[in-house]
Amino acid sequence: ILPQNHISIFNQNKIKSDLPTALEAAHVQRRDILAAKENITAANYGKKVAISSYLPTFDFIANYTRDFQAQTISYGGTTYTPNQIQDNFYYGVQFTWNLLDWGVRQAQISSAASAEHSAKISMEQVESQTRVDVTNSYLQLQSAIQVLDSSKISVQYADDVYSQFKAQFNNGQITTTDL
After folding, report:
1. In the chain, N or C terminus with fewer CB closer than 10 Å?
2. Which residues of the chain have pLDDT under 50?
3. What separation in angstroms does the CA of 111 have from each of 45, 120, 123?
4. Rounded distance, CA 156 to CA 145, Å?
5. d(Cα 45, Cα 52) in Å, to the nearest integer?
């Protein structure tokens, strides 16, 4: 005799997802896609850094030193004591602009642009593989749902046949050897 709740497993809600929704969710949530996006961002920043090497640089410089072993010095008729010369402080602004580097910066920019392009191609490959994975999983899910629906119908049919045989047995129309 089948238990009374054998049909209840089939009454669960079906998964209400279609392939475009699953693809969109995978595009947002998969870690490999997120990592590929971060790689593209990093490569883009690398290219911007390489391009910025064409710009001049400004540096602010400040220095303080103290000579604890200073001695008395005479220069040009003036005598300086250790207290007067042991502390040195200077500051200034430095402007640097590399105008000619024999193509080194251009090669660095080309390399950074190549790295960015490579990251974009890698992202396309990851997205393509994600579409394949999600589509395969979706089709496997749909196949499993169809098998489950088919099994539900088979169980209902078997339950109906059992009820008919039980009714026939109870009415004495068939015996246990007929079953």
Report:
1. N
2. 1-3, 6-14
3. 13, 14, 18
4. 16
5. 10
